Amino acid sequence: MKNPKENVYSYSGAELPVSSADINRTGYMLMERIKFTGNTAIAVLSTANTNLDGTGTIVDIITGAGNGTLVKKVTIKAQGSTTQGMVRIFLKISSTYYLLREIEVPALTQDSKHQTYIGEIPEPYYLKSTYVLTASTEKGETFIVTAEGLDMAYPA
Predict the structure, then answer these.
(1) Residues 82 and 118 sit within 8 Å (Cβ to Cβ)
(2) Where are the domains of the chain?
(3) Residue 59 in contact with residue 43, Cβ under 8 Å?
(4) What distance in Å separates the CA atoms of residue 50 and residue 81, rounded to the nearest whole number?
(5) What is the secondary structure of 4-32 as a DSSP string?
(6) Which residues partner with 98 through β-bridges?
(7) How many CA atoms lie within 13 A of 48 on its CB side?
(8) Tens digit of each residue's pLDDT (9 = 90 or more) over 51-68
(9) pLDDT, tens digit (0-9, with 9 covering 90-100), for 84-115
(10) Cα dihedral across residues 128, 129, 133, 134: positive or negative
(11) Segment 107-127, tens digit of pLDDT
(12) What would the pLDDT profile of 29-45 be if each residue is shown by its tens digit?
């Protein structure tokens, strides 16, 4: 969709809200169509791994699709009582691991009045094609890690 410089109100009847929408000061909007396809992935962590460098037991959660994948949210849910520890989220590019985030897991005893630990990472991650979001747990406790993703495609 084009937005000529001479008429800045022609796009939506209002001033453009984002200054970066004016591509290279040409006065034109870049409105690339993107098709999103849901891609929810689930992984089970249960083997203890204290390493911060991506060595040891690491579990793949979700892999970037051909045009990339937008991971909107990651949820971590314990499957029983927990001791003080960490769940670590890594980005794997080729064979190299990068530690993105450590999520502290508190000591909780699950019973009829207390639920098991649940943690959420609401920040989005963008995975290029073949990039992999992976995870590990510091303690030998079982966690279910869910990544809510959207695979991107550019229709003709």
Answers:
(1) no
(2) 1-31, 35-153
(3) yes
(4) 19
(5) -TT-TTTTTSS--S-GGGSGGGSS-----
(6) 91
(7) 8
(8) 999 899 999 999 999 888
(9) 999 999 999 999 999 999 999 999 998 888 89
(10) negative
(11) 999 888 889 999 999 889 999
(12) 555 677 888 999 999 99
Cα–Cα distance for residue pair 65/70, rounded to 1 Å:
9
pLDDT tier at 3 (50, 70, 90 boundaries)? very low
CB 142 within 8 A of CB 42: no
Task: Give the closest residue to 118 by CA, choosing from 64, 60, 79, 150.
Answer: 79
Per CATH, which fold does 35-153 belong to? Jelly Rolls (2.60.120)
Provide the β-strand partners of residue 91. Answer: 98, 133
C-alpha closest to that of 52 among 6, 89, 1: 89
Q: Supply 27's token pair.
A: 């006065």
